[in-house]
Description:
The chain has helices at about 15-25, 45-50, 100-110, 120-130, 155-170, 200-205, 255-265, 270-275, 315, 320-330, 415-435, 435-440, 455-465, 515-540, 545-550; strands at about 5-10, 35, 130, 145-150, 185, 190, 195, 215, 220-225, 230-240, 240-255, 270, 285, 295-305, 345, 360-365, 380-385, 395, 410, 445, 470, 500. The protein contains 15 helices and 22 strands. The protein is of the alpha/beta class. The longest helix is centred in the C-terminal third of the chain and has 22 residues, at about 515-540. A hairpin with a 2-residue loop joins strand 6 and strand 7 (about 195). Strands 1, 2, 8, 9, 10, 11 and 22 form a seven-stranded mixed beta sheet that branches. Helix 1 runs parallel beside helix 14.
Amino acid sequence: MPDDAAYDYVIAGGGTGGSVLAGRLSEDPSVRVLLLEAGRSDRHPFIHMPAGFPRLKGGPYQWGYRSVPQKYSNGRRIPLAQGRVLGGGGSINSQVFTTGVAADYDGWAVDYGCEGWSAEEVRKYFVRSEANSRLSGPHHGTQGPLGVSDLRRPHTLSAAFVQAGQEFGLPYNSDFNGAEQLGVGFYQTTTKNGRRCSAAVAYLKPARKRPNLTVRVNVTVSKVIIKNARATGIQTIERGVVRTYSARREVIVASGAFGSPKLLQLSGIGDPADLAAAGIDVLHALPGVGKNLQDHLDLDIIYELTDDHSLDRFNRVRPATAMAGLEYLAFRSGPFASNLVEAGGFSYANTEELTPDLQFHFLPAARSEPGIASLRPGFGATLNSYFLRPRSRGTVRVASADPTMTPLIDPNFLADDYDLEETIAGVQQSRQIMGQASMAAFIKKEHIGDGSRVATRDEYVKFVRSYGRTSYHPVGTCAMGTTDDSVVSPRLKVYGLEGLRVVDSSIMPRLISANTQAPTIMIAEKAVDMILEDAAAAAPGVSGLAGSYRGPNGV
């Protein structure tokens, strides 16, 4: 097994975190960076057209994961779409840009011993990453690589939803990422000039021309190579050929909340019981690997409309679709410039909470993703809700020593009864909002579950257990912290090993109170600073990026 090449940094995973790392680290021309991605390049036109994302959730640009049978969700195996493409989930998601609340990050610092990760300390990394087209000030950046913008032309139904939310009693909120999260309004999105701005677009694309950056796609990473308690490289399988790539400085695992624990376990790093069950020898016992899985459990309600009001017409009426396509190609505007999840809000299920604990997403279309009921025939709108701070915890376990095998993923949804009650409250509030005058004028019929009555508590319980699904926000399986079950330190180094970090959503010790793409970018931006600081400390007096990089505006 010859060493195919030596690099300073080898990054396993070209998703959101990996794209940020590769783009930032390769800014120093004196280092060589290798990015390895299991999926394809992000060239498909639907990736870059904001409205194209539902067509990507069931195809080759995602892993096709399904959960193990869910004990508290009627034994269902729930689809768990995760990006298998450069940019990862950021290339196939709905582009909603939310960052969570200060209490999320302060909780990481206080409850899990994550020094350096308080809200005040991580804010500069959110600001560093962002190029907001409207907002600025302490909560927003304008000079970063990540394009963030408003909808150019919100749909009439989305505007009606925002009014209905106010009639329900929520205040209007023009910035969910500012001083106050509570309220209803239009989401800002990770789009720029009418096109998706994933981390692959924002960070990786400008870096691809650099001679010190190598990007390889369609690569199966089979294990991290460990010698004398130090990560020295990566082993891969490419078109049936086993290859190895050496890392002079660090191996960085950025394969997501499902892929990162799987890769560590394939490498012999994890809970000895999990490794033994998969037939893998224990190289480094670390029981927390693959534990602490958290995700938001989403519930959808579809509303059939009185007339041809929704974006569904552009999936079914060919002349209208053709005209919309021409408008998008010519002007980057019109229906195909919509991210579909145009409006939403944050509310309280438990009024004793200090910050909102419910989130809503409104779509001026009938949802048509895998695992979600569609509305045919007819035109619809969709409102979904989820409880923001679930108490249930699940696991990810490697299935065997074969790196091509899908891991055993158990989100353990609704294991805690508190999650069930809060989720029911979200469904109830969804129906109340949609029943307000501004929205009711458009609605012909509510489609909830299989059409059975949902009114009593038992009926709500049945609906939630029968139809709850992922919100595509898995985190926590390589948790950061200083507790006994932590996997990485607050500097994201794997405990007990040298030269190995994890940098993606799996390091979140607790799920944040919003969508997870922007926080994952923040994590990677902060990781870059830590990596460069450690490199400079290891080689005092070295000039270049490692000793001087401070990001845009000197932040």
